[in-house]
Amino acid sequence: MPAHLPVPNSFIIREGLAADIPGIMRLKLELAISDGIVFTVRATAADWERDGFGANPRFTVFVAEQAARIIGIAICGDRYFPGWVGPTISLLDLCVEQQHRNRGVGTALLARVAEFAKTRDCVMIELTMRAGNRAGTLYERAGFAEVTEIRNYVIAGDALDRLAAAVPPPVRKAG
Predict the structure, then answer these.
(1) Is the pTM of this model over 0.70?
(2) How far apart are CA 123 and CA 60, in angstroms?
(3) Which CATH number does the domain housing residue 79 bear?
(4) Residue 174 lies inside a defined structural domain of this protein
(5) Do 125 and 113 contact (CB within 8 A), yes or no?
(6) Using CA atoms, how far apart are residues 69 and 78, in angstroms rounded to an integer?
(7) In a 3-state reduction of DSSP, which class is residue 125?
């Protein structure tokens, strides 16, 4: 029987573990730097442990691993719409290390998210990305369709602070 030698570009896709947090955090920071939003990445390893791997996880992480190194991540979470049955899976982050791009890692991570969605009886995976993001071609090749009729609004930073400060005080009932 022929011996199977490791292929230099081989990788595995698996569900993330708490032990993967340093690699996940590294790629999350890389993604935030490339998007110019590094100020948003404030979570500590303890936050990742609690929110992703604790008793009530708020998201699921899939990792691409090669030679015991995390080279890619896909982070997704549930989003529920009233009147729909089952969750929609929101792809929150997809990041592959620069030197491993265009080798099938992103596609494999997307396929794992799709498999996860199907096991949850989901009818849709959604994602939001900035216009001009090079990953758009990956998403389109995988079968994602741009929905041009939808506008996505965000508020952050000083604008968020101002809006939050504008809340009127609660009205006290007479009595």
Answers:
(1) yes
(2) 18
(3) 3.40.630.30
(4) no
(5) yes
(6) 27
(7) strand
Residues whose CB is less than 8 angstroms from the CB of residue 107 and which lie 6 or more positions away in sequence, other chains included:
138, 141, 142
Among 68, 67, 144, residue whose Cα is nearest residue 111: 144
Q: How far, rounded to the nearest angstrom, does the alpha carbon of residue 87 sit from its chain's CA centroid? A: 16
Domain range for residue 124? 12-165
Query: Rounded to an integer, what distance in angstroms lies between the CA atom of residue 110 and that of residue 117?
Result: 10
Q: Structure tokens of 150?
A: 């939808």
Q: What is the pLDDT of residues 79-125, one digit of tens each?
A: 998 888 889 999 999 999 999 999 999 999 999 999 999 999 998 99
- How many domains are there within the chain? 1
Q: Say how far apart CA 73 and CA 154 lie, in whole Å.
A: 24
Helix (H) or strand (E) holding 46: helix 45-53
Q: Is residue 6 part of a domain?
A: no
Helix, strand or coil, per DSSP, at residue 107: helix
Buried-state track 103-118, b at ≥16 Cβ within 10 A, e below 16: bebbebbbebbbebbe
